[in-house]
């Protein structure tokens, strides 16, 4: 009952706008396919697009201290790193990742950095591509030096500078579908997305994320999310709490099959 109330609250504005009397009437219209485009409007209304630059700062510090230095060594021959931000919303996470590399420009000189942001919402992907934010959005999570360096003020708001947009791209994608580049991503971030899925859909999403990740890559989830009891495709990285490794891949993982059973493995 609580879940239905939350759905009705999220859709209340859309129901009024379209002159639909109730949630049951909306479901009937969707099933009968009477109004093309309504399904996308419903999806947009239900999505929680809360995000900001360097959200929960510690995950970005973890990437900087642990994952990126290891990738600098492992990928030294090819000098190419590919990162996927699944459920990227309006793009702040993607641009935050781009800032991590830009702030260590000398270290990453000569490297190709590809950062892909995906989201099921066309509207937020369009916004992310623009890289245009309000003053409030820019100030939320960024210091004055980062604002001056990475943004330029325009009539429409604060826009990311061209050098920050260069390594990033965005596309509409559902994490329940096949990943954009199977097996190619060195890091996959899927933060605060899976908790909105049913157990069955969450297992499928983990399968999709695993198939998108390189064998020695890392998965990062949100603070309230875990792989424990959710999937057997990932285990905790014993060297960096908060990051996960494919259980069939390389690297240090901790595979848990119960609250008291732990098996550590090294590839």
Automatic annotation (TrEMBL):
GO-annotated biological processes: methylation
Presence of keyword Signal: no
PROSITE patterns in the record: CHER
Keyword entries, A-Z: Methyltransferase, Transferase
GO molecular function: S-adenosylmethionine-dependent methyltransferase activity
Methyltransferase recorded as keyword: yes
Name the record gives this protein: Protein-glutamate O-methyltransferase CheR
Species this chain originates from: Sphingomonas sabuli
């Amino acid at each position: 009952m609580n879940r239905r109330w939350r759905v009705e609250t999220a859709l209340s504005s859309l129901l009024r706008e379209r002159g639909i009397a109730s949630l049951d009437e909306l479901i009937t219209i969707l099933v009968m396919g009477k109004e093309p485009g309504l399904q996308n409007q419903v999806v947009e209304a239900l999505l929680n697009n809360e995000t900001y630059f360097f959200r929960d700062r510690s995950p970005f510090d973890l990437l900087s201290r642990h994952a990126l230095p290891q990738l600098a060594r492992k990928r030294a021959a090819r000098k190419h790193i590919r990162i996927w931000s699944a459920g990227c919303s309006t793009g702040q996470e993607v641009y935050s990742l781009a800032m991590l590399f830009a702030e260590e420009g000398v270290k990453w000189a000569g490297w190709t950095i590809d950062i892909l942001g995906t989201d099921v919402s066309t509207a937020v992907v369009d916004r992310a591509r623009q890289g245009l934010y309000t003053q409030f959005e820019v100030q939320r999570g960024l210091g004055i030096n980062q604002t001056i360096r990475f943004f330029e003020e325009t009539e429409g708001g604060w826009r990311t500078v061209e050098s920050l947009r260069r390594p990033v791209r965005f596309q509409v994608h559902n994490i329940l579908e096949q990943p954009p580049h199977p097996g190619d991503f060195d890091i996959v971030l899927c933060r605060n997305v899976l908790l909105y899925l049913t157990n069955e859909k969450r297992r499928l999403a983990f399968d999709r994320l695993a198939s998108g990740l390189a064998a020695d890559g890392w998965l990062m989830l949100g603070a309230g999310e875990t792989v424990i009891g959710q999937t057997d495709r990932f285990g905790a990285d014993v060297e960096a709490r908060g990051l996960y490794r494919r259980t069939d891949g390389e690297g240090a993982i901790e595979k848990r099959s119960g609250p008291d059973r732990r098996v550590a493995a090294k590839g």
